[in-house]
Write a structure and sequence with these properties.
The protein is of the alpha/beta class. The strands form three sheets. A four-stranded parallel beta sheet has the order 7-6-1-8, with helices on both faces. Helix 7 links the parallel strand 6 and strand 7.
Length: 194
């Protein structure tokens, strides 16, 4: 709902207005919308993975993600998952998942809004273009205090919001709902709006 790629602050008034006009499903982007990281940039999480003598784990992690992304998209014809990245690294992805849980905090405005929608039984879902699986994202949301809700990630669904919006189409089909009856809240003008 913001005009550029900035964290979503408080979408409550816009969401309530759209609900009053007939919206039947509210979907939320995850990172920078439902969850904020306490790091300056998302990839700063990798800096917390530590160092080995003569090697930057953060640099190795970023490089492994680039390689996994190319292999998955160009060769395997699917979106990469965190497990694909860690197949190329000599350490466990569990440390990164634990770090994500530590640095992810709920957007307090979205937490209050999602809890309100959940209590009122208004259908909601989380959608993310992310290498984390739907289950991994659901655990982060749970740890941040969100109620249980359907989570759709590009790593699990093998579709993205970004390129042609195919991830949105999958969500609409699963919920058996027309796109015009859905409100999506996100932070990126291209992936979340266009």
């Amino acid at each position: 709902m913001t005009p550029a790629s900035h964290p979503v602050v408080d979408p409550t008034s816009e969401v309530e207005a759209m609900l009053a006009s007939g919206t039947q499903l509210v979907t939320f982007d995850v990172f920078d919308t439902l969850l904020w990281r306490t790091t300056l940039f998302p990839h700063d999480v990798f800096l917390l993975l530590g160092k080995k003598p003569g090697q930057s784990i953060a640099a190795a992690r970023r490089f492994a993600e680039k390689v996994a992304s190319v292999i998955c998209r160009k060769v395997l014809r699917r979106e990469p998952a965190l497990s694909d990245v860690y197949r190329l690294l000599p350490f466990s992805m569990q440390q990164e998942l634990a770090l994500e849980a530590r640095v992810c905090v709920p957007n307090p405005f979205c937490l209050r809004l999602v809890n309100s929608l959940h209590r009122r039984k208004i259908p909601i879902a989380a959608i993310s273009d992310m290498y984390l699986s739907s289950d991994q994202i659901a655990r982060l949301l749970d740890g941040a205090g969100y109620p249980q809700l359907p989570v759709y990630s590009s790593a699990s669904e093998h579709a993205t919001k970004f390129s042609h919006g195919q991830l949105f189409t999958k969500v609409w089909q699963r919920h058996r709902i027309a796109p015009s009856d859905v409100l999506h809240v996100g932070d990126t003008i291209h992936a979340d709006v266009a």
